[in-house]
Amino acid sequence: xxxxxxxxxxxxxxxxxxxxxxxxxxxxxxxxxxxxxxxxxxxxxxxxxxxxxxxxxxxxxxxxxxxxxxxxxxxxxxxxxxxxxxxxxxxxxxxxxxxxxxxxxxxxxxxxxxxxxxxxxxxxxxxxxxxxxxxxxxxxxxxxxxxxxxxxxxxxxxxxxxxxxxxxxxxxxxxxxxxxxxxxxx
Length: 186
Fold this sequence. Notes:
By secondary structure, the chain is an all-alpha fold. It contains six helices and no strands. This is Troponin I type 1a (skeletal, slow).
């Protein structure tokens, strides 16, 4: 019987070295990309907005320069608005297409689930396997509440609450309350 020997996998130190080299290369490329973008930005700005030479201009010439700049600003704002409108239209179109794709894939139908009663022992047996031998009675650990205790705590008043309010209103009611408090204190 011939056995084919597999090549050993890459060692951990070699893997770590390769990973660090990849990260270093990615970092270099990212820095280069940032520099390229900055260069493109400077080039575009030099093309579109040449430096202003305002020295030696009269008031009328400065006003004309301001009008030209305002006209350029208006043109740029119009372009920006048009581009924003196109972007919004495209995002709306993308959302619609995503919805269509989801509809074409078909909807996932949930199966009808049945309620199954499983005891705690069965759950533990399924989780722990056949090693589970201890029987667990969860109801034995519950605190029992006696009905008599709850009835003693809450006395039931059958009298009408309006009569009690009328009896305690005014100075006579206050005197009754004072006398009752005085009597219980002694």
